[in-house]
Amino acid sequence: MEKPGDDEKLTVPLLEPKPATYKHQEDDDAEEDEVGSVRRRVVEENKKLWVVAGPSICARFSSFGVTVISQAFIGHIGATELAAYALVSTVLMRFSNGILIGMASALETLCGQSYGAKQYHMLGIYLQRSWIVLFCCAVILLPIYLFTTPLLIALGQDPDISVVAGTISLWYIPIMFSYVWGLTIQMYLQSQSKNMIVTYLSLLNFGLNLFLSWLMVVKFHLGLAGVMGSMVIACWIPIFGQLAYVFFGGCPQTWTGFSSSAFTDLGAIIKLSISSGVMLCVELWYNTILVLLTGYMKNAEVALDALSICLNINGWEMMIAIGFLAATG
């Protein structure tokens, strides 16, 4: 027999509905958790990015710093020497570097694809093929360094500056050939995330060039020859270090020794290099036109000196962005 009030008990819910304020609190907590999760992911991705970008920025900043240091010491020698250095480093070197860097950019793509596909032995073969292609390109570019003086005079540059530029360009020949190995080995190592060895050697390059330039110019008073000689030494020391690292066990999976396969399928490498390097060449060459036009001004020495300093400082700053670009790639 039902007692009075049983119907009321049956209608009472087992769980009381949550107050509206409690629901809002839950929504706020979920939103805070989501924001915190996003922040954690951003921090984690930034850490991963800096692991690659940090060494890459240091390497590029130090390598480009060699040009800036040499320019600073040449500026203490004379205005004509500084203007001549501006013509060679900005016109000739950027012209040849545009071609060499553009041709070497194919190696970055090929090494990245092969390493991702776990075809490790192909990295060493691609590296050797790039050496062959870039060395041939450097030989083709050699006449512009051998005949710099008549070439610049034919382009309407000041004869006095052109004569000094002809002397500086001869010193740049071994520097140009150093890029054949320097650019390719750096891309080869970075595709395997071996960035620290590149960074250490680049910092050594920067410090060595600073010390040698000071020693030869300030202490021994060797002038232009001292600056350019220290620059040549500083450019080749890191390359010898990188070669020793690769040849003597630093990359056991990807370097198995020299192979005759490096001489095969060079046509495909050349086609890929040209297609990937055209845009890069255009980006590097537009500064060359500015410097050549500046050389036509009345007071060419001062104009060239000022413009080259600004361009080199701007280029030094750009190494930070290029380092991040290499990391994201």
UniProtKB/TrEMBL annotation:
GO CC entries: membrane
Keywords: Membrane, Transmembrane, Transmembrane helix
GO molecular function, one term: antiporter activity
Superkingdom: Eukaryota
Coiled coil, from the record: none
Annotated stretches, region: Disordered: 1-36
Pfam families per record: MatE
Annotated InterPro entries: MATE_fam
The keyword Disulfide bond is assigned to this record: no
Biased composition (Basic and acidic residues): 1-10
Membrane spanning residue stretches: 131-155, 161-185, 197-217, 223-248, 268-286, 306-327
KW Ribosomal protein (keyword) present: no
Family assignment from sequence similarity: Belongs to the multi antimicrobial extrusion (MATE) (TC 2.A.66.1) family.
Protein name: MatE family protein, expressed
Organism: Oryza sativa subsp. japonica (Rice)
